[in-house]
């Protein structure tokens, strides 16, 4: 029995096949172009495994429709990526593969990966943020994704501009929301170079840490999770974690007694595998729940 994973991101789709122990047997990435082209690659990747496939887990960029009783369930909906607007992702996969499909956001999938196999293993509630090309957040409380009329869009929370930061933000919807101020492209536009090329000693990183700390502060006050996991390309700056913890402590002023920050504000234990592991585990879960 095999499980499939699709991490559908804005720049690439990472497809993987795992066995019953969720060990990854094969993994490949395809560029995100348009649904016709990218999905052709995705379908071709899984076809050789079709006979043994028991379920597929998809973690997609969004916004997406997650309501099972909605006529557009399984669609990518109002994404700024025009070619992908109103794309019937789950429907398309179901036409190609007659297996149960788990469908959630890319960050929820990564949150689930950490919840099952990483920093969330021994706790009930985790929040996962990715700070990369965009900022996204997903939360699990007592084993369930936090959602209501739709999935959360935590990356667009408002942040208070730093006094030393004159950048106005680049979110097309909100300007200076968290994504507009702190995602990779905002760093690049502000400083004229990629985040990876900004030295650790650059004072900008204190400003960046301040925005991420505001996000952790808001998350703490709203959800009181057991752990907050910060992933994505920008957190590859290993010095950032400690800067975020310091800025968070200053913001919180001791108002809430969180778990020790060394275990409360962390980077993903699974590193870049959180999304794939989450999708595989969700595939296994949906396959088992529909077993006769
Ligand atoms: P995506 O969000 O597209 O899935 P990533 O999480 O890798 O992918 O995020 C990519 C973003 O992170 C880019 O804007 C890139 O400039 C930035 N980034 C990647 N590596 C680093 C690094 N070491 N330091 C700072 N920023 C980085
Ligand atoms: Zn925004």
UniProtKB/TrEMBL annotation:
GO molecular function, a single term: fructokinase activity
E.C. designation(s): 2.7.1.4
Essential cofactor(s): Mg(2+)
Keyword Magnesium: yes
Enzyme class: transferase
Top-level division of the source organism's lineage: Bacteria
Reaction(s) catalysed (UniProt annotation): D-fructose + ATP = D-fructose 6-phosphate + ADP + H(+)
CDD domains: ASKHA_NBD_ROK_BsFRK-like
Family to which the UniProt record says this protein belongs: Belongs to the ROK (NagC/XylR) family.
The protein's name in its UniProt record: fructokinase
Lineage of the organism: Bacteria, Bacillati, Bacillota, Bacilli, Lactobacillales
Gene (UniProt): scrK
